[in-house]
What does this fold into?
Amino acid sequence: MTMAEANNPHPYVGMWVTDDGHVRHALLANGRYDEARGNRESAYQGNYRITGNHIDYVDDTGFTADGEFIDDVLYHGGMVLRRKSPPTNE
It folds into this structure.
């Protein structure tokens, strides 16, 4: 990762969560992701690449998947994930 990438992460970097909270995708600024499912933290981990509004995943076992960002919603594998609001300091 370059210094510019570290200071200006992609706008889709962050936490994406299904409405029921069961699936959680942490898209990290270094091009890695960490997916939790239910009580299973780090159920899947790997690399991702974003091109436009399209995301390609390659997990550490070699499994591939993809998704699309539309109107700040991530559609991936039949799931709908929404950006988790950052915590407030109030």
